[in-house]
Amino acid sequence: MQLPAEKPNLVLVDINLPDLNGIQCVTRLKPLMPDTQFIMLTVYEDADHIFSALAAGAVGYLLKETSREELLAAIREVHGGGAPMTSYIARKVVQSFQKPRPESVGENLTPREREVLVLLSQGYYYKEIADALSISMPTVSTYIRRIYDKLHVNSRGRAVAKFTQFALPPLPSMPTPPATRG
């Protein structure tokens, strides 16, 4: 590579390079060229590429659809100490740092998993859940394991606590609790 010898102030880098990708290139060059600023100019819009490029040492991330005028403004921004990003990329970065809404905690549960969780929160035993939903005990265990994985918990108590904390709405047509336990 001739770039370290050239010592440019700024380098525009595409992620999709022939021998190694642009992120790997910046990772290797940044320690050799600490005063050089790198801007990624690429078609990739996903969070993985964005954060990998920034972690590698890029100070900006622009999409190739960026106009000539915007590109020149971004270069001036870097020289002024800024970190240019297209507004779409900046929005993705901001969203990644925002905490999920409490309502979204259980949204990744299937309707059946939510039914099982509601019954768990009402104090049903596994056997009672199986009977109420007309499913087998191994199926109940599978649902509960999936619920724990999706809620990032490892016990019934924690799953119920998370359910209660974020008040996941019950689904319509839930079975009524058993009158007596036997």
Structure, briefly:
It contains nine helices and three strands, in the order H-E-H-E-H-E-H-H-H-H-H-H. With 182 residues, it is mainly α.
Lay out the secondary structure.
Elements: H1 3-6, E1 10-13, H2 22-32, E2 37-42, H3 47-56, E3 58-63, H4 68-79, H5 87-97, H6 111-121, H7 126-133, H8 137-151, H9 156-166
Helix pairs in contact: 2-3, 6-8, 6-9, 7-8
Please, what is the CATH homologous superfamily of the largest domain?
Response regulator
Give the amount of beta strand, in percent. Answer: 5-15%
Count up the helices: 9
Largest beta-sheet details:
3 strands, parallel
CATH architecture of the largest domain: 3-Layer(aba) Sandwich
CATH fold category name of the largest domain = Rossmann fold
Write up this protein.
24% of the residues are buried. α2 links the parallel β1 (10-13) and β2 (37-42). The chain is 51% helix and 9% strand. α6 packs across α8 and α7 (126-133) crosses α8 (137-151). The protein starts with a helix and ends in a 16-residue tail after the last helix. The chain has a 3-stranded parallel sheet with strand order 1-2-3, sandwiched between helices. It has 182 residues and is mainly alpha-helical. The chain has helices at 3-6, 22-32, 47-56, 68-79, 87-97, 111-121, 126-133, 137-151, 156-166; strands spanning 10-13, 37-42, 58-63.
